[in-house]
Structure formats: structure tokens, C-alpha cells
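pinned: reference chain
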Amino acid sequence: MIQIKSDILRNLDNINQEHCDLLKPGILLKVGQLKIRQSQFITSNIDDILKSKPADLFRLGKEYKDYCTAKGRGALKNYNRGLAYVFNYKKFSAKSDTEYRAYALARKLKVNTCPYCNRNYTVTVERGKKQIVRPDFDHFFPKSQYPLFSLSFYNLIPSCLVCNRTIKGQQKVVYGKYIHPYEEGFGDSLKINYKPLDPDSALGIRDNYEIEIILDSSDKAKRCDKSFTLFRLKELYEESHNNEIADIIYKHHVSNGRYLENLRNMFPQLATIDELYKLAFGNYFDETHHFKRPLSKLTRDIVEQLVFVNPFAPVLPTP
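pinned: its C-alpha cells
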């Protein structure tokens, strides 16, 4: 799980505000067709519905239910009826070169790999007015259960088709028990390691491994564990990416752990560990760039498990 962070090129606050400003007028035009309590709550809380962060969305969903179902005149049993029409995700997800839609949001977010699995590219490709491909948008709070949040910014997570449609689907995810990519990633709370199942695989000559995870003692680790299981990452990595693990192990084996050091000696113009790591493993060392390429988290965790000599590490003084 890779965190979607705000940075110079991706200011989440600004994108969120624009998202709200562009969607709000159309929603308010439709809200009058709902029941009175629904209409009152949505009109009074429209900015919060579209802009709130995950914890506040979870609270807002309960407030909406309580308001609509409270005893008295206008009490509702089916408080979600009509919301799919008002918060029309089907329309939002359709292609359009004139209206604000999912393609525009994906283009602004610039999340190049799926934050859930970090296996598949999720690039947005457009040529002029032709919209070719974009990531899926997963609803952390499934829109079948929470149609009120079908267009909420922090409930639209750019992801790959496998994670969104095949694995997660409409499974109910309880906020606070799973990792939410707009709030956090696995980081150091969950490390992806490997266990070789034969001697040749231990040397990187074969690729027969079992994926293991190492969790720290934090409360966050519990959320990491549940998310790792939810997205079936153990099975996906074992089935698809043991070969990449073998390549890293083989580099460690043939260089006696000095692969990075040897590259540094061959290319002294490489000035940082980030540059060296990218040349060595085709990926990013800095966690803040892990969203740019697939398997960046897996690569770094395997490299750290093997303990390559780091030529940029400070030399400790002799006692």
C-alpha cells in the first residue's frame, strides 16, 4: 500500500476544492427531487460530503442516517433511495471532453501505479480530445452501501482494475481497520520479505519463494495486515513476481553483497543513493516516489532484507 501524498505537483487541497466547486452545482440542482430530510441534510452539508477526509466521512455517514431515520414527521426507512441519481458516479466515470469527469481528476492526481498493490500502472493517457485510458476509481466506502459518498474526493482512490473490480469489489471496509491510501501507506510497519523454498532459489538461480510479511508492534501494523490480506497481495506476489525477487537475490549473490558498491566504483558520477539504487534495481529508493513505478515497495523491502553494502552510508569512527 502506497500513500497518495500532497506535493508540489499534486496539491491535494487544491484538487479537492476544485473537485467540490465543479460538482456541487449539478448536485444541488437534483437534490430537490429527494425526500425532505435527505434534501435538507445534503444541502446543509454538501461541501463536507464532497471534501471531508475519511474519518469525517465515516462520521458524516452516521449523522446522515440518524437524521433521516429519527422518529417524527418525514422519517425514512430507505434513506439511500435516490442518492445514486443525485451523486451520479456513472455519469462522472463516463468520457467527456467538455465536462469535469473522472479523466480530469485522474490527470490532476498523477498517481502512476495502483496504491493498493503497487503492481500495475494506473496512468492517464489522452491524445487531444481522445480519452484513451485512466485508472479505475475505487470507493473506499463502497458506493452500493454509501451512495452519499459516490463522488466524495477522499472516497475516490485511483487504482488498477484487478484491485478495484476483481479483488475488492463491493466488500465492506470498516474505516479505522484498514489502510486508507490518502492517509498512510504500509511504510515500515509492514515489510515484504521472502522465504526460498529450495537451495537454488536462495541464490537467485531459481524463483521458488514464499512471501512473508514482518509487522512492527504499532496499531498501524494491524491495519496493514488486514489490507495486505484484503488485496490478496501474498498470492499476487507469489504468482507473478517471484522472478523479480530472484533477480535481486542473484545480484546480491554474485557480488557477495557488494553490488551497489561495485556500481558506485564503475560510475563515480552517481552522487546519491537514489541515483545508484535506480540504476541498480530500476526503481526508487525514496518512499515518497514509490507511486511512480510498480513494485517499488517490494523491491526496497527485499533489498533491505538482503543487506547490500551501501557506499553512501557514513563510516563510523574506529573505537
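why pinned: The first helix runs from residue 12 to 30. The chain has two domains: 12-168, 190-306.
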